[in-house]
Amino acid sequence: xxxxxxxxxxxxxxxxxxxxxxxxxxxxxxxxxxxxxxxxxxxxxxxxxxxxxxxxxxxxxxxxxxxxxxxxxxxxxxxxxxxxxxxxxxxxxxxxxxxxxxxxxxxxxxxxxxxxxxxxxxxxxxxxxxxxxxxxxxxxxxxxxxxxxxxxxxxxxxxxxxxxxxxxxxxxxxx
Length: 175
Description:
Blueprint: H1 2-13, E1 19-23, E2 39-44, E3 54-58, E4 70-76, H2 85-95, E5 96-104, H3 122-129, E6 135-140, E7 149-156, H4 165-171
Parallel strand pairs: 1-2, 1-4, 2-3, 4-5
Antiparallel strand pairs: 5-7, 6-7
């Protein structure tokens, strides 16, 4: 369910995107899903994703210079691993016109190895990002024995922008 929501949100907000970046890829092929976007980049400190259609970069975004903003960016299930997420979030917003972020929502502390900020709440994410999202949704994965919810948040360069059903009707790219 979570991945379907991410896919749908990107199909709405990135319909006209020419450039995309996925930060903290962990080798996952997320960028391949958005094949209508001609220029796609994957950035990760350790394991970036690369293919014939996606440029892979092994680097730290906090140390990188970007000549222009990306039309859209994703940072999926990454922030809970970063020791100081606020500067990282500021950089994400600096380099992306629109940004989709996801985090594990209210997962118990200590349940998942490598998560140093659990439980992540909407308030915690807003404090890292320095503002409320333009849109957010909590997605529950069905048929799980344990709490397996994820918070997906959209941030636009314009913090006052709202997303409405008319945006969906006009902007969805058929699967």
